[in-house]
Amino acid sequence: MEIKVLGTGCAKCKTTYQTIEKVISENNLDVTLTKVEDIVEILNSGIMATPAVGAVKVKGHVPSEKEVKQLLGI
Question: Which H or E run contains 3?
Fold first, then answer.
């Protein structure tokens, strides 16, 4: 599984990445986590609010660990 965190590098984007990274690590998940900061790539994805996660499961807010676990089926 691959998860992309789309965001320009603001505090919310960084926190979102760290939250997802923590859940992946704590649950020993086989997930590739990447950060997309290129504004053109973000806009081409149709994203108008950041942070955004993946095939847009989350946008415009920092997800809680509980929300990340739900998205990952844990």
Answer: strand 2-6
The model's pLDDT over 45-56, given as tens digits with 9 standing for 90+, comes to: 888 778 877 655
* Number of Cβ atoms within 10 Å of the Cβ of 57: 14
Backbone angles phi, psi at 17, to 5 degrees: -60, -45
Q: What is the pTM of this model?
A: 0.73
Rounded to an integer, what distance in angstroms lies between the CA atom of residue 50 and that of residue 23? 20
Name the strand (E) or helix (H) holding 69: helix 65-71
Alpha helices in 1-74 (DSSP H): 11-26, 39-44, 65-71
